[in-house]
Amino acid sequence: MPSPSRSTLAGFTYLFRPSATTPSAASPALLLLHGTGGDEADLLPIASALAPNALLRRAAPESPAPLSELAGAILLRPMVTFDPAPGSLPDLTGRRVLLLHGEADPTVPPHHREALARAFTTAGAEARSAITGRDHALHQRDLDTAAAWLAER
Question: 143 or 4: which carries more pLDDT confidence?
């Protein structure tokens, strides 16, 4: 597996790891975004477990690739960080979104997942949500659910 390299652009640190194989439909490109309390390396083990040969790029949440350019998204313990009113997102027709949440998450209440699922669906995305744990921590069930969702593409 190639080692990740760091670079800085517009004051944000980026971590890039090329795919171990020639990118194809079987080895997707992944953009990893984390919330507060993490850094650019925290999600690499999760991404490696889900898609070992994926091209990985991590970007600060303040400067993500436009949602309309992404084929889909897996949101783990998602928090509403924008106005989820109709029309607040670009047209996401043909995009897939998976939202995974803890049943009794003390950090992010369940209504965040529900509001985001509605916003993505209203914007045309195929949004699926699931309760995969009891709390805010990530569990093996999150990885299993996300891996199965990725395999459906």
Answer: 143
Give the Cα separation of 91 and 120 in Å (integer).
9
Quick check: 2 and 20 in contact, CB under 8 A? Answer: yes
Domains of the chain, residue spans? 1-65, 67-153
User: b/e map of 65-85 (b: 16 or more CB within 10 Å)?
Assistant: eebeebebbbbbbbeeeeebe
10-63 pLDDT, tens digit per residue, is 566 666 666 666 555 555 666 676 676 666 677 778 877 887 776 665 554 444
Pairing of strands 55-58, 29-32: parallel
Determine the Cα–Cα distance for residues 73 and 66; give it in Å rounded to an integer. 12
CB atoms within 10 A of CB 56: 20
90 with 123: CB under 8 angstroms? yes
The one-letter amino acid code at 152 reads E
Element (H, E) at 11: none
CA distance 40 to 33: 8
**Architecture of the domain whose range is 67-153:** 3-Layer(aba) Sandwich (3.40)
Instruction: Give this prediction's pTM.
Output: 0.77
